[in-house]
Structures are given as C-alpha cells and as structure tokens.
Design goal:
Number of domains: 2
CATH superfamily of the largest domain: P-loop containing nucleotide triphosphate hydrolases
Helix content: 40-55%
Strand order of the largest sheet: 2-5-8-1-9
Shape: elongated
CATH architecture of the largest domain: 3-Layer(aba) Sandwich
Number of helices: 13
Radius of gyration: 22 Å
Order of helices and strands: HEHEHEEHEHEEEHEHHHHHHH
Strand content: 15-25%
Structural class: alpha/beta
Oligomer: single chain
Largest sheet: 5 strands, parallel
Number of strands: 9
CATH class of the largest domain: Alpha Beta
Distance between the termini: 37 Å
Length: 273
C-alpha cells in the first residue's frame, strides 16, 4: 500500500462509507487507483473499475449495448449498470477527467441525491434503475497542465464529489515501500535511483523541467536494477519519457543525467563495463 497521511485516509474512508462521493486527484503513477482498491479491501466491498477514458460511446460503455443472439435482439448490460444494483460495491470511476461530455451527463443523476438513472433500452415499463443503498462511488483524476489529453471536469459534476489530493511519495517513504515488497537489500540498492527521483521533483517544483519521475516508474524498474547497471536503466527506460522531439524535453533529460553523473552513476557504469 502506498503511504498516505493516516488522518487523510481515515477521513476519505469515513466519507465513502457514509455515502459521500469522493474524488482522488494527483499526478500519474502516484497510487490513486491502488488507494481505491485498498479502501475497498478495508471496507469489505467489491471494487468495480470503470475506465472513464473509454466512454466516448457513453451509453454503450456505461449502460450497455444490443446484440443478436439466436435471431433475437438482446440488451446486454454494461458492467457499470450491473454494479449500480449490486450490493456492497465500490464503483471506481477511474480517470474521470478523461470522460466524454455524454458520460458526464449520464453520471449526474446517479451521483446526486436522486441516485437513479433511466435506461430506455431496458425491456418492460420500468426503465428506471435505482442504485442499491450500499453502493458507493470514488473517482480518480489527473489534473494539471502536464495532462494534455485530460479535460477540465465540469463544475456541476465536480460539485458532486469531495476532493482529496494524493501527492507523490518522498523518496524516503518510497524506499520503505520498496523494502516491504522487495526486501532490505534491494531497498538499499535503490538509494541512488531514489535520489534522482527526489531531484526530479525538486527541479519540477522550481519550473526547471517539464515533468517528474513518477512513483510507478521507480517501482516498475526495480527488477531491472538487480540485473542491469543503473546508468543503463536510466538511459534506456527511466529517462525515455523525457526524450521526445521537443528540445526542451531533451534538456530535461540532460539535467537529470548531469545529476546522476554527479552521483557517480555513469562512472560506475564505465568501470563495470
């Protein structure tokens, strides 16, 4: 589990349990979705993840679609629609800031005091589905100028959530997490990489580089650091996000390489090579 202020986590869990919709914001790879799964586990609820970035055809993605079976046209309910009626479910609206306008409009009555939705595709006279009283909602979103593919969340929709920000872990806290997963020796060996991780966040905060090394990026390359030289891991994997066509982004990589060089990373690579 990613480290989060215990008071903040307790408040978030209390609000979700009481039926309040909560929105977890933060940078990519900070652990937002992982936190949602952890809350579901602690509350004894079944998590159902809805990828809001895949809701361009909102009615099909959220409600369902028609299919032909044995010569008959049948309406197949989407996972989201099924979850609304399933007791003790925590619906995770992942990447809410990537949803379409149509998806937002469908979510409004579900997330406010009405807690129901009309689905005209359903057979019979009763086309209104009421949300099970035990169903809870939590959403995640990337918000900031870094995320060019995201959208500004509609103010009316945002007002239906209580927001919590999940910051990136400090290197020392990330090291504790690495120790809990991979053991003390691997955590010790990750020290130089974590110094570069912290430095990227410092430079980003000072406006000297355009993005940061994410928590997820560090965790993803830990298995590589036990088999390959750190300089190679940095050049071929970690810093590749900075090496795009933009000259400013290339400069970002150079700034981080210079710091890594000051830590002796490349000297060690050359000696070992």
């Amino acid at each position: 589990m990613f480290v989060i202020d215990e008071t903040k986590k307790a408040m978030l869990q209390t609000l979700v349990e009481s039926g309040k919709n909560c929105l977890v914001t933060g940078a990519t790879g900070a652990g937002k979705t992982t936190l949602c799964f952890h809350l579901a586990e602690e509350m004894g609820m079944t998590p159902v993840v809805i990828n809001c970035g895949g809701t361009q055809d909102a009615r099909s993605s959220l409600f369902g679609y028609f299919s032909l079976k044995d010569g008959n046209t049948l309406f197949e309910k989407a996972d989201f629609l099924k979850a609304l009626s399933t007791p003790n479910t925590l619906i995770i609206l992942d990447e809410l800031s990537r949803a379409s306008d149509d998806a937002y409009n469908l979510l409004f009555p579900i997330l406010d005091f009405r807690r129901d939705v009309r689905v005209d595709e359903l057979e019979g006279d009763d086309k209104v589905i009421s949300i099970d009283p035990s169903v809870r909602f939590i959403a995640t979103a990337n918000i900031g100028i870094e995320y060019s593919s995201t959208r500004s969340i509609d103010r009316a929709l945002q007002d239906r959530f209580i927001s919590f920000n999940l910051p990136y872990l400090a290197g020392k806290d990330l090291k504790k997490y690495i120790r809990s997963i991979h053991g003390s020796e691997v955590a010790k060996e990750s020290g130089t990489l974590l110094k570069l991780y912290d430095y990227s966040h410092k430079m980003f905060g000072q406006g000297k580089i355009s993005t940061r090394i994410s928590t997820r990026a560090v965790l993803d390359v830990i298995p590589l650091t036990t088999k390959f030289k750190l300089g190679e891991v940095l050049d071929y994997v970690v810093l590749s996000i900075f090496e795009q066509d933009s000259s400013s982004i290339v400069n970002d990589a150079n700034i981080l390489r210079e710091f890594a060089d000051s830590l002796g990373v490349y000297a060690k690579t050359e000696e070992n090579g």
